[in-house]
Write a sequence for this structure.
């Protein structure tokens, strides 16, 4: 199913979400709006608000401003983390164009990220539900912890293991999508079992999404992917395609990998060499297989919810997450 077809049910709701986002990035300081619009206007899948709206719809909530405000808030938080990530990672490309940190500078980019976080929390507060506030603040704390853990692993302050790789993915990516499923259920005043199921659904597709992202960093091209490929290698990050390949590599190859990842900035031929090793040992396909298992778990998490169009769209969305090319 085409990506746009999945969201036909919530197309008008997503338009309302965009309007709320637009209202909330307005500022008397022109640069604040300019940086906000630069990233928000350059595309993005709006995965998080879509999960929230489909989750609430699957439990029978089809109307109400709170779900629109909450969906807008989650997208603002996500966008703020992208701004912060690009500064931390010295990124050059985001969504197919020059990253905000290179376009506007590090300091304004970080501060506009802070502005978005403040606006997001104000929107959640307007929903008047303490459970929502807790869900969002818990996820926001995990996002920060995930970023710190990733920095620590890049500096070899923690031993890189499969467990650490998954912890980074869960904290940095999946926790926010998990909160979208949970908030959708809470807004619908659903049964606790449904809230837990939708929360688990978000967690599992969040992990699958990041696994595919990591796989594409080794197998895609910048034109298709929309951001610089090989970026994880350039930043010295260990992700699962490489981790699974190292497990099969020869002793000499393992030593080469260690040397390359230890460099401040690897040479282009060294980046190509690591990508070749990942291809040699099927690191991308192994990672995609793990992602497919999480998609199956996501679908299973909501199997107890009575069948309806919104639940069906959640299933199609899970399939899209693992089949996507960008």
């Amino acid at each position: 199913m085409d990506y746009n077809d999945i969201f036909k049910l919530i197309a008008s709701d997503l338009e309302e979400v965009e309007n709320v986002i637009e209202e909330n990035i307005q500022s008397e300081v022109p640069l604040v709006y300019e940086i906000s619009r630069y990233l928000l206007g350059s595309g993005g899948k709006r995965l998080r608000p879509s999960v929230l709206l489909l989750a609430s719809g699957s439990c029978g909530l089809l109307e109400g401003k709170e779900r629109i405000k909450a969906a807008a808030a989650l997208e603002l938080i996500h966008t703020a983390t992208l701004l912060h990530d690009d500064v931390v990672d010295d990124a050059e490309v985001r969504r197919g164009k020059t990253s905000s940190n290179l376009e506007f500078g590090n300091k304004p980019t970080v501060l506009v990220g802070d502005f978005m976080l403040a606006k997001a929390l104000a929107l959640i507060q307007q929903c008047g539900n303490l459970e929502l506030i807790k869900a969002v603040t818990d996820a926001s704390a995990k996002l920060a912890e995930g970023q710190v853990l990733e920095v620590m692993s890049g500096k070899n302050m923690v031993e890189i293991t499969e467990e650490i790789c998954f912890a980074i993915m869960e904290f940095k990516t999946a926790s926010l999508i998990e909160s979208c499923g949970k908030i959708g259920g809470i807004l619908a005043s659903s049964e606790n079992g449904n809230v837990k199921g939708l929360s688990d659904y978000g967690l599992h597709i969040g992990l699958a999404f990041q696994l595919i992202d990591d796989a594409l960093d080794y197998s895609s091209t910048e034109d298709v992917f929309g951001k610089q490929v090989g970026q994880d290698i350039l930043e010295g990050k260990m992700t699962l395609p490489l981790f699974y390949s190292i497990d099969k590599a020869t002793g000499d190859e393992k030593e080469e990998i260690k040397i390359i990842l230890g460099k401040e900035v690897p040479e282009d031929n060294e980046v190509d060499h690591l990508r070749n090793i990942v291809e040699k040992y099927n690191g991308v396909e192994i990672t995609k297989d793990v992602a497919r298992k999480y998609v199956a778990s996501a679908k299973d998490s909501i199997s107890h919810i009575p069948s309806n169009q919104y639940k069906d769209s959640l299933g199609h969305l899970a399939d899209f997450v693992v089949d996507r090319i960008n």
